[in-house]
Amino acid sequence: MPDYLVDPETDLVEKQFAVIYTPRKQRNRFPENCVFVMTSEEEAHAQADPDNNRHAALVYGPSRSSEGFRLYYLVEWL
Q: ∠36-42-43 over CA atoms, to 5°?
């Protein structure tokens, strides 16, 4: 069960392919400055560089947090 809500009536938050810069893959949400949105899964795989902490992923976002930050939520690592 995901810990985020998605409103199917709007497209404010959408599922996207991305490359995430993170030294640890245990987190499930990331600030927008660590997420690089890609146009396709193939592009995410091509831009990923695990040796430099850049991992391909499927994310929901961006979503505004209660503190005003824009966050992306991990759906799955690719």
A: 35
The burial of 15, by beta-carbon neighbours within 10 Å (0-12 exposed, 13-18 middle, 19 or more buried), is given as exposed
pTM here is 0.80
3-state secondary structure 17-49: EEEEECCCCCCCEEEHHHEEEECCHHHHHHHCE
Structure tokens at 44: 């995410």
Give tens-digit pLDDT for 21-31: 999 888 899 99
Distance CA 57, CA 77 (A): 4
Query: Cα(56)–Cα(48) distance, rounded to whole angstroms?
Result: 5
